[in-house]
Amino acid sequence: MLLEGLTGEYTPGTWANVTGLTAGPPVLNIFSAGTVVGLDDSFLAIGVYRSGSSYAFATWLLSAPPKVSASADHAVVDQGSSVIFSGAVSLGSAPYTYRWNFGDGSTAATRSGAHAFAHPGTYAANLTVTDFVGHSVTASVIVVVNPPLSFSASATPTPATANPTVALASTLSGGTPPFTYRWTLGDASTATTASLGHIYAKAGNFSVVANVTDALGQSASSAFTLQVNAAPHPSSTGSSGSSSVSLTSGTGLYLLLGIVLLAVVVVALAVMLARRPKSPPGPPAQYQSSPGAPPPGAGPSTAPPPNWSEAPPQPPR
């Protein structure tokens, strides 16, 4: 029980700032006038002091300023996630009063408690502690608030075809790294990477679900149905005549060049044939089977025609 409302503060080596002793002796004489009792880094001094021509009995409470620390269970959080703030006090004189100022306009009057920030940013949460004798000390803790976790997943191409590889990708923003991924691909397959390639062995509609979880346990998911068509049969291309050939590359280009070259050769041959000399017009000359015509003025031949039935003369032996 305090008989006088007198308080003081200890600084290294001496007591100072003792209030209400204007009529009494110097602070140093308090200890020689009574008994000092230690109370958790505070001192209760009981003694007498002179007031005018008389002496008065009084009790003084002398204490060191409180030491205060502030902490949070997470230095980085997602927007909307709760942060547990705690305060610790040593020295000073109990009881204490507490006041939190979280930096976003919100306050609290408890030593510890939870608070959620509604917007991303960096906040300095201040804890001010006032002890019984009126000493006030403030401590701070910094908290970074990330944007909320946003996540989506997609496949390329869509629709897909059985057997060729399908590219599955994810897009993420916000949240607190590191992240963990979980895919279920609809055909009993799973994956744990941000993106992947996957082959569907048969046609059908497959339910694909992708989930991501950040370092603070916040999660988001994305789901879609992937249509996978059957692969074309080999006989449907090539010999059936349904395949197409490009005339600008590969075999089609060589084929086109060959056709052009053949056309040039044909035109050249046509020009050469057109330039050859032609025979004069008129009926063709008759073929003469006799050895020769008789000279002019000679009459018709009187020689008897040869007897082809006689045997030809034999040469001499």
Descriptive overview:
Helix content is 9%, strand content 42%. It has 317 residues and is mainly beta. Among the domains are: 7-63, no CATH class; 67-146, Immunoglobulin-like; 150-229, Immunoglobulins (Immunoglobulin-like). The N and C termini lie far apart (187 Å).
How would you summarize what this structure contains?
With 317 residues, the chain is mainly β. It has helices at 28-32, 250-274, and strands at residues 7-11, 14-16, 34-39, 42-51, 54-63, 67-72, 76-78, 82-90, 97-101, 107-108, 113-116, 121-130, 136-146, 150-156, 160-161, 165-173, 180-184, 190-191, 196-199, 204-213, 219-229.
Give the strand line-up of the largest sheet.
2-1-5-4-3
Question: Low-confidence segments, ≥5 residues, pLDDT <50?
Answer: 1-6, 10-37, 238-242
CATH superfamily of the domain at 67-146: Immunoglobulins
CATH architectural designation of the domain at 67-146: Sandwich
* Cα end-to-end separation: 187 Å
Number of strands: 21
Order of helices and strands: EEHEEEEEEEEEEEEEEEEEEEH
- Backbone structural class: mainly beta
Q: How large is the share of residues in beta strands?
A: 35-45%
The biggest sheet, with number of strands, parallel, antiparallel or mixed sense and barrel status, is: 5 strands, mixed
